[in-house]
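Q: I'm writing up a methods section and want to include an example of the input and output format. Could you take the sequence below and give the corresponding predicted structure tokens, formatted cleanly so I can copy it straight into the document?
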Amino acid sequence: YFGQTQTPWSVEISIPYSVVTAQANRQAILMILIAVAMIFLGLIAMWFLIAGIAIRPLAVMTGALQNLQKGSLNRNIPPAVKEAITRRDDEMGLISKALGETENYLIEMAETAKKVAEGDLTVVITPRSDEDELGIAFQNMIASLQEAVGAVAENSNNLAAASSQLAQAAK
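A: Here is the clean output for your methods example:
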């Protein structure tokens, strides 16, 4: 009871629930939008990070392997690109080093093949292991060619001697 009246009274203020929670709802929506934007930006940053760490080096090495598959020894790939991947201390670096060693080996064997094709049978091949099929095959090929050239030279000498004997007998 208020005042001097015996009649009870009260004041009711009616505010709709939506009006009371409107600002909180706007804040919640704003926070959700900010969180979604941050997640999206984080995903983009991770994509560029992963691209720099893994995708670009894998693309270079995939291209190099495809070149090797076609017989190209990757002499057109800039050394700086190869070195950037090879310097890494992770699996990418190990793969790049193995690929580089393979390229160097194939370049060495190609140079040897050129020398043999030019007639140089003095080339010495040392296989890198007991499982070095290409090195062993080159070694056997050079040995076979040396034997064949030796046999041709011996037959030529024998033919020259026989021709000389026939010439002496004909006089």
